[in-house]
Amino acid sequence: MSASTDIEPTNKTNFDLKDGFPYWLVVMLGIIGWMVVQIIITDEYREAFNEIRPGLKLTLITTAGAFLASMVLGLGLGLARLSRNRLVETLARVYIEFVRGMPMLVWLFVIALVLTVDVVDFFNWIFHSGVKARSISFAWRGSIALSLFYAAFLAEVFRAGIQSVASGQKEAGRALGLNQRQIMAHITIPQAFRNTLPAIGNDLIALMKDTSLISIIAAAELTYRARIYSGSSFRFREAFFVLAVFYVALTLLLSLLLQLWEKRLKVPGR
Amino acid sequence: MRKLNKVLAAALSVALIASACGGDDDDSGGSGSEASTDGLPDLGGRKVTVGVENAYLPFNYVAVGESEGQGWDYDAWREICRLLNCEPEFVAAGWPDVIDQVAQGELDTAADGISITDERKEIVDFSDAYMTVQQKFIVGLNDDSYASADDIINGDAIVATQVGTTNFELASELLGGDERIRAFDQFGLAIQALIAGDVDAVIIDDAAGLGYIGENADSVKTIDDGLQSDPLGFIFELGSDLREPTNAAIAEMRSSGFLDQIGGKYFGTEFTITYDDIEG
Question: Topology of domain A61-219, per CATH?
């Protein structure tokens, strides 16, 4: 029995059949199916769907890009949190606490409207170059903000995951003659990753849903498309029903994929 | 004074009904509207909820250091309610969702410099126009690349505006699609993007644009070419009984000079509040 899978309460959809027949899933698929039928048979819903759908590309790209970047950054930050170097540990801690202390929307404004411009100015001042902030699009700024934000959450997940690996494992590695770095890379991190997968999946789904916030800074993802469409057509009902179903379907899909992945990585008997 | 008016109004309406022998077929004001002494309908002190964005200078905004909203819309609705004997309650609402809120009857009316369009008329009723604005481009003060609107339209300029506005619609038309448009949640963000150099121009109604280009504006200027003129009105739920009384009040405010007065106050050169001075 390991406590590692309870690092964070998971709100990820659970497909486990041991709780009996998933009636909830049937109902959800029924509602989604009903919306699909509406999109096929009514002009209003089809129009809303066609207007919103082009935003799917940016939602998916932003989710995937920001998730990969935040995994890499989060692992670095998580390791820094465990560093014996007090300065490194403190800097990582300050960053994590700062970012986790504010809502994603506020962080988005900070990064997209203020820090991007400041960092570009600073860059130009250092290198005497003439880079313009505008060459970094709002979609990019939104992705950067999401990456930096979720890196702080994933750092804590990784830290807890690494700490959850039993010390006997490290001792066994040492007995085999591995050095610290090898133990971390070949023994601790692979086990930590498996232990933390539910929590990572949870953050992936939260990140996907938070991409809707970048609509506010005019990045043309799903929510932006729905806002544009509803603002021009006044079909608020159709626009937001279709939009909601897009996100629910994406969440279900991600949950399912994560569930399959967790099954693959599962150690028999645990 | 108000009490006296009411007594007089009641007496007058009794007299009118008596003289008309019940042949009152003029239902313009709907239920409860009575003629008052100054010829305007009397709403009997009822509460009227007015949706405002509080982020559309100078129509409605919250000034730095203040907690209450203010602006042209506030002054106008206080005057309308003074004339009609009602009590305005200003409710902060998001744009363009406020249109839907009024259409669903959640709010009695909304004031946000709303352009009267045929599409919007399908879901809400409009008051008579209280002013007409010109849509214009705003560009950076030191930006000499755009001498005319055509330079912006025909080049590769990126144009910012607000979601769900007639400015967005016109920009899509002029620029042939929304590839070069960045529609923000509020105009404040669009102006900020212009100042930061993230976009080349903002398309906005000149009345709202003036709110920005006060004497404090040292970073942006207007391109003079008017792109399209839009009449502005208040919106109501379809069939609302507030529409006719409001139209009567607007006519009264026009003839009494009140509209000119608040026009001078908010759109004249003495108006110097900028987006830097508002929260929202």
Answer: MetI-like fold (1.10.3720)
